[in-house]
């Protein structure tokens, strides 16, 4: 590998490390609190501190780290295909095996531990975007924009349906079915009743096998086919990552300037959206519209801002902390799934059962502890082993044989 190639991979590892650490800032809410708390900081009771934390997460992190991870995944698809070409192997066969193995891991993650999984989306979408691998950067970027537009239209249609459900339920003389349907949605995205919260807690207090069976029963094929809007957005980010890599934009001298411009446009727009949520008292329909639909465009801009600004830092940083971030990025899959294992053991009934008992400030402290562990164990593991444990499992599944793990 050339020095330039090694520096490029080191930069991507550092970006991936930041992304997997940043994702935990949002996932911790899903691990520890009822569903409505993700959208509504007042869902468990009014708290100025919770509102401030929610706003900071929404503006700076929510969807941006996931988008950054998807951008890098798209770049990884190209790098893996190029490596297969150099070996004389069939890139399509290798890619199909990797996505099939990732899908299996994602489905186990979704049904076995946590329904907030992103790996199934990456596997399904990754199969499709591979078909555009030969396309030039402009075509890839146009396809990415089309995917984002499709995601916006899909989410806007959902919001329109949601508004109709609420209107039907609140109309004088509304029947019991209409009111029950709105109560169900309202408990998910806005204001859960004490009974709803108790039901969620009871679900999380199940033993592992009972919870697994309940997720199979309640979610059906959602782990594979659910949330079309999210899949379209993931496709947009993957295609955009492929376009950026093919055009060589990450190492462009103007990359930092582009990142600054993207932040200058995306940040005020996202702050305005957050203000709308505050001003509307976190109305469930309005907040869902902001988080799911209207934030897509500024979310793309802020994801690009993170990408370009961090790329310049990653290419120059040589300090020990940066090296640890790169190691965490090389083990991003192990750190992502490891966080789920640790925190579901902390919050769910098969572990310590702390679900719903800790507030957002305490959750932030737990994230800091988790980051410290990631930055400690990732380089320690890689000093003895070639790959992270889940990365090794993934590659061995794709190769259909046990690959060497320990370093000679």
TrEMBL record:
Superkingdom to which the source organism belongs: Bacteria
Domain DUF418: residue ranges: 249-400
TM region positions: 12-33, 67-84, 96-114, 138-160, 255-276, 296-315, 336-356, 362-382
Pfam families noted in UniProt: DUF418
Key words, A-Z: Membrane, Transmembrane, Transmembrane helix
Official protein name in the record: DUF418 domain-containing protein
InterPro entries, A to Z: Bact_Transport_Assoc, DUF418
